[in-house]
Design a protein that fits this description.
Strand order of the largest sheet: 2-1-3-4
Number of helices: 6
Structural class: alpha+beta
């Protein structure tokens, strides 16, 4: 239970080091976008890469070559999908979610909150984190495509241009 053999430990060190080097090499070749968390799809790929690395490290039934192939497959699929989404708005619409406005000019948008399963308490927590002391002072609260929540304190007289991709309610 605590120790099986020196060869198992040696395998973890050797295979783990080589798998790590392979993963870093793939990430350097494909660029920073591979590990970004700009949307839920990116997060899934990042978690899957970590899970694959753990499997290669700890499961003796998975060879280093299988693990490297799995890295290449995940990174290749992610690269292909992001390449297509940048070049095709239709494809991008199928893959990516749109940000959702949850609060606008100090007013909760209850229907949007219900659809996105976000509570008033969660919005209040984010407002506190951002230093907003009164709900009425919040210009907008947006649930981003990656699941994070953004707070805009000041919208000015006009609607902020950063809200262009959200469904802004009429005054």
């Amino acid at each position: 239970m605590f120790f099986d053999s020196w060869s198992d430990l040696f395998r973890v060190v050797v295979v783990g080091s080589l798998a790590y080097v392979a993963l870093v090499a793939f990430l350097r070749v494909t660029g920073k976008r591979t590990l970004s968390k700009l949307n839920a799809f990116d997060l899934v790929v990042t978690v899957a890469l970590g899970s694959t690395l753990a499997t290669v490290l700890l499961n003796a039934d998975v060879s280093l070559s299988e693990g490297v192939l799995a890295f290449a497959l995940l990174i290749g699929l992610q690269y292909g999908i992001t390449w297509l989404s940048v070049r095709s708005e239709r494809f991008q619409g199928m893959i990516k979610a749109e940000p959702t406005l949850l609060l606008y000019r100090g007013r909760y948008l209850r229907d949007a909150m219900r659809r996105q399963r976000v509570t008033t308490e969660e919005i209040l927590s984010v407002l506190r984190t951002e230093g907003v002391t009164r709900v009425e002072d919040a210009g907008a609260v947006v649930l981003e495509t990656d699941g994070s929540i953004s707070v805009l304190s000041d919208l000015g007289a006009e609607t902020a241009t950063v809200l262009a991709t959200t469904n802004v309610p009429e005054r």
